[in-house]
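hey can u check if this looks right to u? its 311 residues, i copy pasted from the old doc so theres a chance i mangled smth
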Amino acid sequence: MIEVDHITKQYGSLVAVRDLTFRVEKGEVVGFLGPNGAGKTTTMRILTCYQPATMGTARVAGFDVFDEPMEVKRRIGYLPEHPPVYSDMYVRSYLDFVAQIKGVPKKDRRSRVDSAMERCGITDRAKQLIGQLSKGYRQRVGIAQAILHDPDVIILDEPTIGLDPNQIQEIRRLIRGLGREHTVILSTHILPEVEMTCDRVIIINRGRIAAVDTPQNLTARASGNRRYYVAVSGDLDAAADAIGDVPGVVGVGHASEDRALEVDVSGDSDMRPAIAARLVERDLGLVELRPITARLEDIFHELTMSDEESP
């Protein structure tokens, strides 16, 4: 559905996006994740034909964003970081106006507006001024304008920024629902957003792609040594010394909880039997032994905070 091949965008001497290549399949919800200034919004603007790339090509629903921008725009619904809504218009009037601009046939306009309002949970706000809505409802109106022409692709740039926790939960549910019928790209730097809504993650850093995978696979392939959580009822320092002598253990440190250790091991083998046996042998009262699963936050930090500068 979306094909990006070696896209680069330069602003004078500043390279905002450098040699990006990725694919998004039909029906996927993909999180475009990166720190502020990583190049996410620049990439979104290229895909939505708001600005051209310096080099490279991109296609949306089979149409080239450079050679066929009008065809691309007909197939994309876009919610920029700041929703393009008019505060002095009523919700229904605004959506009807947008439907006209987007070329929705007059005979279909009312049903499309009704459908978009229902899906976004704003039917009861149809006759309310947009300027009187809460930020969460204005965001819903912004999403409604992005979907009312039934686009193949929906691109959402920071859709929950500035919302309260309840509003964030509502928008996340809405995004998951959209993913059942559309291809969705969600640009964000909020990690829970990705974990709760996305099928796949593209992490971008300093204008380059740092990783592409599912949230589950990214956490499973955390780099470095594997780690275990060990709780004992006996002497903690004696337990640390005992575990430290087990072949394959490369580090033992105190966990944040009392009576617990964090154990780093090398290799891919399961070290739990050897660690447990050593603690039982020394009568140190093993209470709990489990792997520590890497979080997406850890992976994100590792991939975006490296001091190594790309050439």
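DSSP finds eleven helices and 14 strands in the chain.
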